[in-house]
Amino acid sequence: MRVAYVIGTVDGGVGEHVTMLARGCAQRGAEVTVYGPAQAGGRFFPADPPAPPGPAAGFVPVEIADRPRPARDVAAVLRLRGLLADARPDVVHAHGLRAGAAAAFALMGLTRGALAVTVHNGPPGPGTAAAVYAVLERIVARRADAVTCVSADLAARMRRLGAAVAGLAVVPAPASWPAGPPDGQAVAAARAGIARPGEPVVLAVGRLAPQKGFATLLAAAARWQGREPCPVIALAGTGPLDQALRAAADAGGIRMRFLGQRGDVPVLLAGADVVAVPSLWEGQPLIVQEALRAGRPLVASRVGGIPDLTGQDAAVLVPPADAAALADAVLSVLDDPALADKLGAAARARAAALPRQDDAVEAALDLYRRLASPAPAPS
What we know:
It is a single chain. This protein has 15 helices and 13 strands. The chain is α/β, with parallel strands linked by helices. The two termini are 28 Å apart. The strands form two sheets. A seven-stranded parallel β-sheet has the order 3-2-1-4-5-6-7, with helices on both faces. Strands 10-9-8-11-12-13 form a six-stranded parallel β-sheet, sandwiched between helices.
């Protein structure tokens, strides 16, 4: 089977997901090529990757822009069209609405394979971006042979537009998670770098962008300033809101440690008293899955695919953008060791039922086989 993946400008979560699918399918015998911006190729598909042994996925640069740029968009579609016409894949799997629309236009008029599109993100707030998102949704709904989504609300939205929704995408956390608990000395050192002895640590991890809701976390923290001992927020990640969040924390006198990009998230999780995920919208966020695996008490927004990951018992779920509810939930866990223990046990039980990377690859291959099978002759 020949499989072509099409990506646009992707962040860590989507890029890691496509990398996992591409490598997994290649290692199971598929001929895999990924098309996308050179920047994404350099990050996720380097020329000499430290990849597992076995067949690898090829990468071909196609500069699909992250926002409407008519001349560049036309050039990207034409280049992609020529590449797909030569490669003649059985299935084209695009990730994201921009990549999906580009692939749909590139395949028009070709004797082509099937087009699958995975929708990874919810609609933005009001404005030009929302109008563009709506147009891309309609293109994908009308042109794709199958659409998968990372949350049930996105699937319902695409069905209303007439898309052939093929269910939820399986987006597991990376398989590199340690088999056992992190080293105790490393955990103690990480915690000592965040808070003084006896101070609770509230951990948040993610890209410093509006969707992640870290401004709500700051507003929640303002409500517990003055408590003794005062909870300290540890925020791991980088992004466009870095300076704005630092300024807001300084202005409010909020105990917050900006940790930057970290490669020791399992250690940070082991040292946290509560993990907070205050996102305005999420699909199947990796940090939620990682917190469940670590058995940590979790407070998260009731949005997107988060409730499906946590179930009813493995997290305290609160409305998005509600600082008061978020603060109350965090403090309820910190003030009630029995509740914290109950959440941790439920998290570990829930993690045991989460899909793994092999499940995601097999689900994708099953979809590709169904799409590539010739339709039965009409009776």
